Model the fold of this input.
Amino acid sequence: MSTQGRHGATTASVSAEAGAGLTAALVSIPVGIGYGVFAFSPLGPDYYSHGVMAGLYCTLIMSTVALATGSRAPLLYGPRNMVAFMVNALVLHILVDSHAALLARLPSSQVVAVVMLLGLMAGAMQLLLGVLRAGAAVKYVPHPVIAGFQCAAGLLLILGQADAVFGLRQQVRLSELATLLPCIDPWSLLVAVITLTACLARVPRLSRLPALAVGGTVGTLAFYLLHFLIPAAPPGLLLGAMPGGLPLPHYAAELQRVLGDAEVRALLPALLIGAASIALIGSLDTLLGGKALAGGDRASFRGNRELARIGAGNMLGALFGAVPGAIALASSIAGQRAGGRTRLYCVVHLALIAGAVLLLPGVLAMIPRAVIGGMLIAVGIGLLDRWTVQQLARALRDGPQALRGSARDLSIVGLVALLAVAIDIVVAVAMGVAVSVIYFILRMSRSVIRRSYRCAWVRSRRSRPEAQARRLSVIGERIVAFELEGAIFFGTAEDLANRIEMACTGTPTIVIVDIARVSEIDLSGSRILSRAADLLINDGNQLVISGLKPGSELDRYLDAAGTRAALSSERIFPDLDRALEWAEDRLLLDDAGAAAHDGTRVDAALDLANFELFDGLTEAQLALLRAAMTLRRYGRGERLFDEGDPGDTLYLVVSGSASAWLRGRSVRLVTFSAGSFVGELAMMIDLAPRTAAVFADDALTCLELKRAKLDRIAAESPELMIRITANLCRELSHRLRRTNRTLVELSR
Done:
């Protein structure tokens, strides 16, 4: 029974893997044909058949190399959009535009060999990147540069189909299109539109089939049905005869012949730079897409090993007449979604591609060029960078102001795309990276001050008696906070020092520099901070650092640079709230009225009239409350109550302080000092469980009043309860007003 079950499961899994291989092959074949034709299209229609086979051979050779070298990840290989685009652009700019006479002199096999030389050199570079474990370096190419390539690739692919879509025999430039309008074949245009529509429209019953396979089939059927129903229609252009059979290393000898040509050798520097561009973008494409496609076990994808494998595949493919390629994202996604999980589906996919190369060259030769053109336009639309398209769509919908946040990146995308289309892909690479670096330097040179404010109304989370709170609204102007963001280096630190100096005019000031959002600091920045601290102390001011996590990389650097010692540990705090609390305490201690208030003794505080919650009560009412209360003392770190506990007790802080925390002790909400009260909302307003835990910061003395005793007092003296409720409402109103003022100050 179990054997049958295992046999059934094995049969089902083999069937699923075989189906996944078939699904992937249905994607790989039209994509391989399309990208191969696109790569060779600058050379004209006579090379389309070479492009078809070069695209299919790429899938065949690279998949064979991957399986032979032990690839375990369920990945498929073949031509890639960006790689095909770069081959197209390099062939156009290096050969067609600049050396047309050389192309006319060389036989077609040697022209193809020059294209293969690009793939051979690019593969060698990728292999070297993988062997030297330097593949991660290509990740530093800015994304807007890659997006510009994608947009240029999509536009060139779309514009490059003009001859196929309009039924023209020669490749045309946009500038020549107007003169050739009388020669346009409307039937080819109709077939191309039908093919494109079938590729883009998702019919529910066909949604699981590859869009290109559906579009290619519908377009081809429409072409032959059209000519069956309308015999007088122009015959239309087909891909034409092409070589069949499995690939052989014919181009090893052809490469030797072309390298013996002095004029071809003169092209080697340009070809070498172009191959480096192919290697760079192909490697980046591999590293970014490979992990996402490696299945649930991402550890199975090893970037440097994959680069070496792809480099070897491209080198070998060049000898067999294959265009360079990489990981085939579309085929891999289609196969994995269809259930491909193991090497078996990769083997099935390879076998089906080999069968197509062996058995279908005659069938492929009958595919109309208009159908290929429609399919490639669909591919070109998909190539356009999605983020760029979304931003431009927003601008059309909401106006140009919608692009304010993305204008810089879009300008790089546009520059790279324009240069790649109009001038040269290598120039586009260099200019895109250079402009990105310039933007980066300009952005880094801007002020690192995220915002600055005086702290008359921006307070710490320490709850203070109303007298202290009123006093801080006056003397709090002497606390200035600078919240920093980004990198503090020689280009930004001097501006920061000048801003700090300008803030310390007039009365002695405590300057808080919050570096919680600072990404890094260099030696110049750390020395300027030390110098600012010395200058402030000499003038009677103080510099406080907040947001410096002990043991962090920034902390270790400041320690090594001597900045930590210059500031002293007393004036370095892990967050802005603690720094604000320290600064407020310093001001209150220096202020005569606050000092007297802070000196309140325990026995004096036992007079409940000192608590604002009981303001206006008669002596008899205070005596009634005092009799209901219990005096409790807590040691440092001792818990008053925990999150979720019943809210049945009111705590009056007589001496010491306590803090409310969330998630254990990771987030401080508020600190309660002498003269304040804790737990009033849960006990007197909503009767809900505690929303935070409260711990004693140091030796703490509290008066505690239970809810049951307060209820009995309220029954005996309703006027007392009304007065307490009114005082509580007044206190909540003060808190809300202070919060509003704080929000206004921080929003400036």
Remarks:
- Residues 1-9, 295-299, 593-605 have pLDDT under 50 and may be disordered.
- The chain has three domains: 13-411, 449-598, 602-746.
